[in-house]
């Protein structure tokens, strides 16, 4: 019970201190506002280049130059009287990328594959460093000399003499069968 | 869900005085286990009527085209002709070209569809003076 009272008191003290801290940090935040980057206004119709949405909510070019405006006027007349360049200009006023441009391959796969190989390579370097700086010393039981002595000992002990290890050793001739 | 969204967008945004096209009727592309199935001809007729509205506005054209392209089918040339004529009434050549691009894209791997559609639309294209993307050179990036 005594401990409880103590901790409760400590917590209360902490809370009051934290409360003060909260006020001060929020004040700092408000003072330093203006670091936010400009965001798209999502409350108005937006343009998008999408294969599944051929006609976006608004034309690509909002503000038209005088030449564009006169072209738009000409568009109200017969389209046969428009030249190819004018028709193309009208398209570009309305849209940003053509379908062909939207579908153009990006070559992103090269970046992805390159990144994969780079990091595999980096991992290889890390493994190599580990080999020299992290691994403990080589156990002597893996030396050829020791292994030979081990094999001899196993044969002397007749390890698995029926079907296994020693069964494969020809004891008369002193060699493997 | 898509049907409900359509109903919401159609009824919510447009005035009630015009007769609203029945987006909420079952579409030939869907398979419901109940209700009357719309035939392909009914589907086509509905869309031709939609684009043939004399005083169609730009929003309705965009909405119609985007919805149509959202379906799992390539629109019949007669629907596209109605849409191109709607573009003409709205003085929008760029959208007409865009529609042709969308049809080609919609055909996907079936390369024979787009030339067929162009062949069927050739009289309309010549009459209205709508160039194909190939004629403008925008079929290649």
UniProtKB/TrEMBL annotation, chain A:
Residues passing through the membrane, by range: 112-132
Domain of life: Eukaryota
Family: Belongs to the cytochrome c oxidase IV family.
First-listed, main subcellular location of the protein, grouped into a coarse class: mitochondrion
Entry-linked InterPro entries: Cyt_c_oxidase_su4, Cyt_c_oxidase_su4_fam, Cyt_c_oxidase_su4_sf
Subcellular location: Mitochondrion inner membrane
Full protein name: Cytochrome c oxidase subunit 4
Gene Ontology CC terms, in alphabetical order: mitochondrial inner membrane; respiratory chain complex IV
Main function: Component of the cytochrome c oxidase, the last enzyme in the mitochondrial electron transport chain which drives oxidative phosphorylation.
CDD domains given in the database record: Cyt_c_Oxidase_IV (cd00922)
Pfam families: COX4 (PF02936)
Membrane topology: Single-pass membrane protein
Source species: Cyprinus carpio
GO biological process: mitochondrial electron transport, cytochrome c to oxygen
UniProtKB/TrEMBL annotation, chain B:
GO molecular function: metal ion binding
Keyword Metal-binding listed: yes
Gene3D superfamilies: Cytochrome c oxidase, subunit Va/VI
Pathway info: Energy metabolism; oxidative phosphorylation
Key words, A-Z: Acetylation, Heme, Iron, Membrane, Metal-binding, Mitochondrion, Mitochondrion inner membrane, Phosphoprotein, Transit peptide, Ubl conjugation
This protein's record includes keyword GTP-binding: no
Major localization class: mitochondrion
GO cellular component terms listed in the entry, alphabetical order: mitochondrial inner membrane; respiratory chain complex IV
Bilayer topology term: Peripheral membrane protein
Places the protein is found: Mitochondrion inner membrane
Pfam families in the record: COX5A
GO biological process: mitochondrial electron transport, cytochrome c to oxygen
CDD domains, sorted: Cyt_c_Oxidase_Va
Function: Component of the cytochrome c oxidase, the last enzyme in the mitochondrial electron transport chain which drives oxidative phosphorylation. The respiratory chain contains 3 multisubunit complexes succinate dehydrogenase (complex II, CII), ubiquinol-cytochrome c oxidoreductase (cytochrome b-c1 complex, complex III, CIII) and cytochrome c oxidase (complex IV, CIV), that cooperate to transfer electrons derived from NADH and succinate to molecular oxygen, creating an electrochemical gradient over the inner membrane that drives transmembrane transport and the ATP synthase.
Subunit-level organization: Component of the cytochrome c oxidase (complex IV, CIV), a multisubunit enzyme composed of a catalytic core of 3 subunits and several supernumerary subunits. The complex exists as a monomer or a dimer and forms supercomplexes (SCs) in the inner mitochondrial membrane with ubiquinol-cytochrome c oxidoreductase (cytochrome b-c1 complex, complex III, CIII).
PANTHER family: CYTOCHROME C OXIDASE POLYPEPTIDE, CYTOCHROME C OXIDASE SUBUNIT 5A, MITOCHONDRIAL
Family designation: Belongs to the cytochrome c oxidase subunit 5A family.
Protein name stated in the entry: Cytochrome c oxidase subunit 5A, mitochondrial
Gene name linked to the record: LOC109051249
